[in-house]
Specification:
182 residues; alpha+beta; 4-stranded antiparallel β-sheet; 4 helices; 37% helix
Amino acid sequence: MAGLKHPAATVAAVSDEHRDDEHRDELPEDLDVTAYVGPYLFPTMERRRIPATMYLVLAALCVLGYLVSSNGGLLAAAIVLALIAAYHFACAWPLTIDQTEALLIASRTVGFAVGHSSAQLAWHGLRARPVWRILLYSAESPPTMRGLVQIDAVDGSVMGEYTEPNPEDWSKYGLDDATSAP
């Protein structure tokens, strides 16, 4: 009986071996904060012209195939590809206002000193025009005001803005609730 091991000791040894072999989660390189190289630049929508050109070339090849073979499916495919290419060209907006400029425009629009803010790039309308949505909080601690500003990313015009007293309750974090003051 001296050569027998306790079952728990055997399980522990096996699980230690398994732990060494198992895959561990790692943070992707692009999210590693220690490798920070500068602010992120949003790609411009003008890149849509690349697939649009590819669709046009493919449509031309389909037309050529139709002329050689009289296959109606190739003609239908050429028409569909040409329509898709036209849509991609129509949606290839230049992104002339970057996130920094959008934050400056939003700061001037809300009328209060801005502390924390966040920018989101979205698209508006059938032609997917790029639009910045900026969420801003006032500079006080805790913030007493918040605002949302929507800015056209092509020409920089303010499409809409909304500001209100900050309704968030900060008392559970040990901060005075400045929003409840009249």
